[in-house]
Amino acid sequence: MMKNKILVSLCFLFIGCKDISQGKQYAYSETEKRLSIIKDFVDGKVLDSTLRRAEAVVFMEKLTKIESESPFIAEAKLNPTKGDYDKWSKWYEQNKPRLYWDKRNKKVSVNK
User: Where do the structural domains in the chain lie, given as residue ranges?
Assistant: First the structure.
């Protein structure tokens, strides 16, 4: 009887840990996707005219609380700098373990 309770508890723990792990992986993926968009622009690889780059800048500013050096152009920051990329990448490496996917608010958040 006690063995069954322990087994059931371990199953719930495993399922809960797996869900947390997947949430962290999703948070990492979403952040790395934005950093990649910014890096490609800074390196001159992709000069798209879509709003993906502007969204990536807004995402990184909100997540890191580090404002872009880029000026506003047509209501958005479209030209992130190498300095922006370097600051955001460094912040990501230092804070990666604290990131998680906030299911309720549907966004990447940082544990305090």
Answer: 21-110
